[in-house]
Amino acid sequence: MPSSSESLHLLRMFSWISPAFPTGSYAYSHGLEWSVDNGDITDVASLVIWVKALLYYGSLRSDMIFLRQAWAASSSQEIRQVAEFACASAASRERYEETVNQGEAFLKATDIWALFKKDPDMADIRWPLPVAQGILFRRNHMEQDLSTISGAYVAVSGIISAALRLIPLGQSDSLKAMKQLEHHIIRSAAKTRGKKLEDTGSGCFRSDLASMQHEIQQTRLFRT
Question: Quick check: 14 and 146 in contact, CB under 8 A?
Answer without folding.
Answer: no
